[in-house]
């Protein structure tokens, strides 16, 4: 079960299990890019300019645009360091989004195009991804990743997890194919077909956007770790790994429009097929509904679990629920909208740590500190954990008589609750 390519020392050498999750949301991926840039800078303050996000997380999960960010954070360059810094990911979005989603037609033309096929052909996106990721495969990532997609032939979610490629080598697909697949939002971009081959046996994939299965992939990431515990992966000490106090989880959303309400019954009662698929503000109501429902349910579940266990500071959900209507579409890549998304991401850092209230759908503050302050605390914990693991690994390497990896019992100094 253990991977050999990861640059992150396994949890057995430390105290924590670290998880990063990034939602889907098209061009709104700019928001988590800004949050990650801030976190990476905080890590660099503690561990030097070469510190990268991938150095600190046992698993990074991403859906759709979050899957693309996950790949960019973890794909290796020729020196086996992350291909992109968080800042470069932000710049990639600003440069490429207007070409991926060209704003060259009006609403009527868009409706006509959507009737006859996907709104965008995806060629520029595919070329941009393949150019940067080249032949990198899932198993080459610098830490463990999990990226959900959905197979329209089997009508089942297909989860690409680097943890599972030893048991399922046919899942070791090119990272570019996985990114193209998880980003293939229905009506916006075409589905993606590809094949993998192992021992002369081919496996075919007929995939669309992972957001239809899990727009917020945090639970999928934690589920992948749980499977490793079931299989008694030696990278995780047992039974301590089953304890939630060992988890340090950051979940980043791409923003949503809820503060003033996006749709009303009075408006929706007149909708037919076209109304549900294309709103007057350029959004897609049905797509918004099924992606946002799963997103908030995951946050609600984890918020309750961590709060019940008095571990609220081990779980950080950063989400903007007050986007303007014009910012919510996945594809409105105008210069004005991109600038507004940048401002939304930067302003989000100054807002109080919040969680979703399922009664009214709004985010309510539950801690006095801002998201920026919480990220600084997480950066400190992540840095301490990395130093602890490196230290314990060094001790293990220096002891020729050490038969097993150190467990949590020997390293109880850091308090995470």
Automatic annotation (TrEMBL):
<feature type="short sequence motif" description="GXGXXG">
    <location>
        <begin position="24"/>
        <end position="29"/>
    </location>
</feature>
<keyword id="KW-0611">Plant defense</keyword>
<comment type="function">
    <text>Lipolytic acyl hydrolase (LAH).</text>
</comment>
<dbReference type="InterPro" id="IPR002641">
    <property type="entry name" value="PNPLA_dom"/>
</dbReference>
<dbReference type="GO" id="GO:0016042">
    <property type="term" value="P:lipid catabolic process"/>
</dbReference>
<feature type="active site" description="Nucleophile">
    <location>
        <position position="64"/>
    </location>
</feature>
<feature type="region of interest" description="Disordered">
    <location>
        <begin position="389"/>
        <end position="417"/>
    </location>
</feature>
<keyword id="KW-0378">Hydrolase</keyword>
<dbReference type="GO" id="GO:0006952">
    <property type="term" value="P:defense response"/>
</dbReference>
<feature type="domain" description="PNPLA">
    <location>
        <begin position="20"/>
        <end position="222"/>
    </location>
</feature>
<protein>
    <recommendedName>
        <fullName>Patatin</fullName>
        <ecNumber>3.1.1.-</ecNumber>
    </recommendedName>
</protein>
<keyword id="KW-0442">Lipid degradation</keyword>
<dbReference type="InterPro" id="IPR016035">
    <property type="entry name" value="Acyl_Trfase/lysoPLipase"/>
</dbReference>
<feature type="short sequence motif" description="GXSXG">
    <location>
        <begin position="62"/>
        <end position="66"/>
    </location>
</feature>
<keyword id="KW-0443">Lipid metabolism</keyword>
<comment type="similarity">
    <text>Belongs to the patatin family.</text>
</comment>
<dbReference type="GO" id="GO:0004620">
    <property type="term" value="F:phospholipase activity"/>
</dbReference>
<dbReference type="Pfam" id="PF01734">
    <property type="entry name" value="Patatin"/>
</dbReference>
<dbReference type="GO" id="GO:0047372">
    <property type="term" value="F:monoacylglycerol lipase activity"/>
</dbReference>
<feature type="short sequence motif" description="DGA/G">
    <location>
        <begin position="209"/>
        <end position="211"/>
    </location>
</feature>
<feature type="active site" description="Proton acceptor">
    <location>
        <position position="209"/>
    </location>
</feature>
